[in-house]
Amino acid sequence: MRKALLQPVAVHRVVILAVLCVSFALTTIVQAMAAGGEAMHSANRGMLARRVTNMDSGWHLDKIPGFHRWTPEAVLTPPQIAQLHCPWPAGVWQPVQLPNDYIVGGTFSHHANPGHGSLPVYPAWYRRTFNVPATARGKTIWLNFGGVYRDSVVFINGQLVGQHPSGYTGFRYNIGKFLHYHRPNTLAVFVDPRFLEGWWYEGGGIYRHVRLIMTDKLHVAPWGTFVISKVPGTIDYGSPAGDHAHAELTIQTTVNNAHRTGRQFTLVSRIVSPEGKVLATISSSEGLAAGGIKTFIQHASIRNAALWSLKHCNLYHLITTLEVKGQTVDDKRTTFGIRTLRFDPNHGFFLDGRHVEIKGTCNHQDFPAVGIGAPDDLWPWRIAKLKAMGSNAYRTAHNPLASAFYRACDHLGMLVMDENRHLGDVYTAKTPMGAPYSNLSDLKWMILAQRNDPCVIMWSLANEPHAGHAAAGHKHSPSAVAAGSHYFTELRKLAGTLDSRPVTYASAYGTPPDWFDHVDVVAINRYYGWYIDGGRLDAGIKTLARELDALHAEFPKPMMFTEFGAGTLAGSHSDPPEMWTEDYQSEMIRGYLATAAQRPFMAGALIWCFADFKTSQSTGRANGMNNKGVFT
């Protein structure tokens, strides 16, 4: 592996001869992360409270490499779904444990897509059985999938439950009407990963956790708790244990009454300190009509709150309970942090009132050997390695990640630019003109699922949207620019109804500057000295500096690099530096960081990318790789 240290004045590449073992401290953090999960909180609490059952074991997989019933589709049609029948016990079934990426274990083929690692991609069936006790009859029962790549179709006892096209967002189904009680149920999932949503290795399978959630028909809605923290006064920076301040909390709890009659209940919210002490209890009497859903607002104050920061990852817990006539019918645990964020148009980024230079990498979600089916403890391992090399920020290129990733960043102190996969209601690698954008469910899920994580500092609405290619010396089509503005208006409006964090998008060369009107942070992907002015790094840096100054004059907003870098062949050197050498990559990274450091309005820089990865073959891709990684 090779590594570039993220320092503004010096970038070095060294060879690491061995992978370090995860330390005892890191193991402790992983255990703490698991203990903070909803499943640990709700286990063995009795049928009157929420019960969460891990469904990762007991699966069997039947791969279908010869599937040719239809060509790859972005979304399977109802007639195609009607042809699906789980072949059990016929087929070649093998036991698997989730998370699982079955593509990564395939055999390399000259006929497979090189950009997907030359691994054949084909559909598969997953199957397992499970029991639900008779005492659960009349409860609300959800089946929750963290992520399936892709276009999954779920059946229970042979009945179609639902379809979820996206390979990058979680989803859940209310499955009560499909179940047998007190006897085995069959769960079958068809997965078809042949249609690629991106241009990198995307894998295939049920690659995130599956959980069965049982609760009362009066319950906290999915992603229904949200803690908004504000620090209205001064911050005490004097403690070696971290910064402290008075904090005001606004607690939003969305409750659903699925009963056929109205319900009166008591909503109790308890704030628990990082040390486990109950700091505040807020109780209110509420009511909901039959079938009603409503968000209730409560407030709390925390004196001398321990703030979340990069060095002191103080995490609080909200324990939410719904009580009817003194009995708990639902409970939920939510982890959150108290901290302040501010992007200044002239002075960059501030965390808890302190100026922080954002410096990090862009990262895909796969790992060696396991592909996209990463065990939870690989995420804190990766974050710890990145922090050790000087990184404090992580762009989720180009999609939201597993919940274990955000927990790792919360516990270890890593800032996150959380990126939406698709601009609009499509699943193509790039959004075509005229695509619909009335649903935006993927963006909504990303924000709802991660808005309590203090590590997330901004939402990225899209990666490198284009308005077509304008001829030299000509502007983009007004209709194309207007169409993009409509997209960003709707995405920003949705984000603003769910959360108050800044929004941005990663802008490539030639993106209409008008679209920067719709973001809070101007984020740019630039490769002067590589794709433009290739081999002429001094000229490229000068071009870069002129563009930064011009953009900030036209759009006086905070700015940052969200991509920059140079391809490198490991072990290649030259003096003076030439393209494809480690020396050239180091000089380019050094030049970009220095250019940003000279401009206080630049909030920071994210290098493309964390690690080399397979991509399509071309004259610009040595060995069919994107070689811009700081690791190889």
Structural class of the helices, strands and pairings? Answer: alpha+beta
The amount of helix comes to 10-25%
Number of distinct helices: 9
Mean pLDDT: 90
Secondary-structure map:
Blueprint: E1 2-4, E2 13-15, H1 24-35, H2 38-42, E3 51-54, E4 59-63, H3 78-82, E5 93-96, E6 124-130, E7 140-145, E8 148-149, E9 152-156, E10 159-164, E11 171-174, E12 185-191, E13 205-206, E14 210-215, E15 218-230, E16 244-257, E17 263-272, E18 278-288, E19 293-306, E20 316-324, E21 327-336, E22 341-344, E23 348-351, E24 354-356, E25 358-363, H4 378-388, E26 393-396, H5 403-412, E27 415-419, H6 441-450, E28 456-463, H7 478-498, E29 503-507, E30 522-525, H8 537-554, E31 559-563, H9 582-597, E32 602-607, E33 613-614, E34 625-626
Parallel strand pairs: 25-26, 25-32, 26-27, 27-28, 28-29, 29-30, 30-31, 31-32
Antiparallel strand pairs: 1-2, 3-14, 4-5, 4-6, 6-12, 7-11, 7-14, 8-13, 9-10, 9-12, 15-16, 16-19, 17-18, 17-20, 20-21, 22-23, 23-24, 33-34
Helix pairs in contact: 4-5, 6-7, 8-9
Structural features:
632 residues; alpha+beta; 34 strands; single chain
What can you see in these coordinates?
- With 632 residues, this protein is α+β, with helices and mostly antiparallel strands.
- It has nine helices and 34 strands.
- The protein has an eight-stranded parallel β-barrel, surrounded by four helices. A six-stranded antiparallel β-sheet has the order 5-4-6-12-9-10, with no helix packed on it.
- Helix 4 (378-388) packs across helix 5 (403-412) and helix 6 packs parallel to helix 7.
- It is globular and about 75 Å long.
- It starts with a strand and ends in a 6-residue tail after the last strand.
